[in-house]
Amino acid sequence: MHKKIIVKTFKATIISIIVALCFTATIVLSIYLFYGAKINETIAVVSKYAIEKEKKQLPPTTITEDNVIENYPEYGTQYATIEIPRIDINLPLYYGDDLKLLKTGIGQSPLGYFPGEGGSIVLMGHNFVNMFRRFSELQKGDKITIKATYGEYTYNIYDMQIIKETETDKIPIQDEKEILMVYTCYPFNNIGYATHRYVVYAELEK
After folding, report:
1. What residue segments make up the domains of the chain, in order of their start?
2. Digit-coded pLDDT (tens) for 77-124
3. Strands 120-124 and 179-186
4. Helix (H) or strand (E) holding 146
5. Is position 2 annotated as part of the catalytic site?
C-alpha cells in the first residue's frame, strides 16, 4: 500500500510539473506574439548603442608624415572602402581575410601592409556577381581607390596574371615599394573549389 501511495504521489508531481511548464510556455508565447516586435526593436537599439559606444572608445586610426600607422584597425573591422570604376565596384574593405568577412566585402591579408605604409598590400574577394566577377574587364592604367579612415590612396593597374594558389611567390610581401595586389578565384564561373587565382597588380599613384 505504501508503494502505491509513493507511485501515485510521484505521478501527480510529474503531472503538476508538466502542467506548470505548459502554462509557462503559453504565457511566454503570448508575450512574444503580442510584444515580440517591441522586444526585438528594444534589443536592436540597445545593441546598436553598445556598438556605437564601443566604437567611440576606440582611438582613431591615423598615419604620420613618416608613413607610420597609429592605432591599427582591429581584426574584423571595416576601415575603408575600395572603389574600381571600370567594373562599378564600391565595397567595404575589412582588415582580415576569414570567410565571414568575405561574404560581405573585401578582405585584407594580415601578412601585408596597410595603404600608406609603403609596402605590399594584399586584398582578396569572392568572384560573386556583385564583387569581382568582372575582374577580366580590367585594363592596364585603370584605377583602384582605397578610401581609408585615415586617408585616400589611388593605385594604377600595371599587370594582371592568372596564377596557381600555391604560387605564393607571385604575391610577394615586400617593403621597398607600395604595391597593391588584389585577387579572386579563377575561373570566374567556377563551381566548387578553385585552384587558380586572378591577380591584379597596381602601384601607388604619385
Report:
1. 1-57, 62-204
2. 999 999 999 999 999 999 999 988 999 999 999 999 999 999 999 999
3. parallel
4. strand 143-148
5. no
pTM of the model: 0.70
| Tens digits of residue pLDDT in 127-160 | 998 899 999 999 999 999 999 999 999 999 999 9
Q: What is the spatial distance between Cα 34 and Cα 198, in angstroms, rounded to a whole number?
A: 53
Task: Say whether 126 is catalytic.
Answer: yes
Give the largest CA-CA distance in the chain: 98
Fold of 62-204: Sortase; Chain: A; (2.40.260)
| Identified catalytic residue from 2, 22, 126, 196 | 126
- Non-local (6+) Cβ contacts of 163 within 8 A are 170, 171, 196, 197, 199
